Amino acid sequence: MLGEITFYKFHCKNLRKYIIQFRKVVFINKKQALNIVKKNGLNLSKIPHKFKKDREIVLAAVRNDGFAIAEADKSFLRDKKIAIEAIKNNKNSFLLFFNTNLVKDKDILDLVGIKNS
Q1: Tell me: the pLDDT tens digits for 71-108?
Q2: Vertex 80: Cα angle to 53 and 85 (nearest 5)
Q3: Where are the domains of the chain?
């Protein structure tokens, strides 16, 4: 009997937690997601994952805050246009591209102010 009560309490507690989490889930469309990241690029971390793979949304986010690239899908770390926009916004975001071939790119190095020998 005690085992059944403990089992019941455990499942009720977890169910309550999942219901609370479900209430926090907001269903948004692409236009709303775009508006969210245009106001604050770091809000890219708070929108659904499918939008983190959308080039237009990621581009808007990095134009607002260069470090938003850290919240985007990792495939965008190899995208030169997104890298340039991120670095234009914040030169320190260059460090996030360090493990890609873009650190050798002349245009990117010029943006950061590093002379390529």
Answers
A1: 999 999 888 899 889 889 888 887 777 667 777 888 88
A2: 80
A3: 2-112
